[in-house]
Amino acid sequence: MNPSQVLKQNRSLYGLAAATWFKMFLSFFKNMGFVACVTDPCVFVRHNGHLLWIYVTLYVDDMMIGGTSDMLIDKVADEFSSHFKLKTLGNVRFILGIEVEYAHQTKKLKISQAACINRMIVKFNQVGAKAVHNPSVMVKSCSSARKES
Domain named Reverse transcriptase Ty1/copia-type: which ranges (predicted)? Predict the structure, then answer.
C-alpha cells in the first residue's frame, strides 16, 4: 500500500460492535414510539392507549417482549422481524440466568436466581456453609406500572 493512500473501514472497530448495535436499535425503537426507562436504558416501554402496554428488554442480542395483549406483542415482534432477524423461542423460562415464571390466570410474575446462587455456592466451596439470616425481603410484591403512572 502506498503511504499516501487512505483506507476506509466499512464496519465498526473491534470492541465497538455492541455500542454500534445498541445505537442502531435505540434509533429503531424511538421510531417505533418506544421510550427507554430512566433507571435501565435497556428496558423500553410503549403505551398504546388506555391499558395497552408493551415492554422490550434488550441485553446485547437477547431480547424479551412482554405486554398486556398477545396481539400487541405479536404486532411488535412482526415489526422487529421486518428489520432484524429474529428467532422466537416462545414464553420465556430463563433469561440471563434468571428463572421466569408467569401464571396467566392469576397474572403473577415470579423471578428467581436460585440456579445462579447454587452455582456460586458450589464454585466458592460453600456447600456445607451455615446459612446466615439476611434482613432483606425474601418475597417482594411489586405494583404494576399502570398503578405507578
Answer: 3-136
| Residue 86 CB coordination number (10 Å) | 13
Q: Which among 31, 32, 38 is positioned nearest to 65, based on CA atoms?
A: 32
Domain limits, the chain:
1-90, 91-149
Are the beta carbons of 115 and 123 closer than 8 angstroms? no
Positive or negative, the CA dihedral 75, 77, 81, 84 is positive
Mean pLDDT across 29-43: 90
* CA neighbours closer than 13 Å in the CB half-sphere of residue 22: 14
Cβ(53)–Cβ(67) under 8 Å? yes
Q: How far out from the chain centre does Cα 4 lie?
A: 47
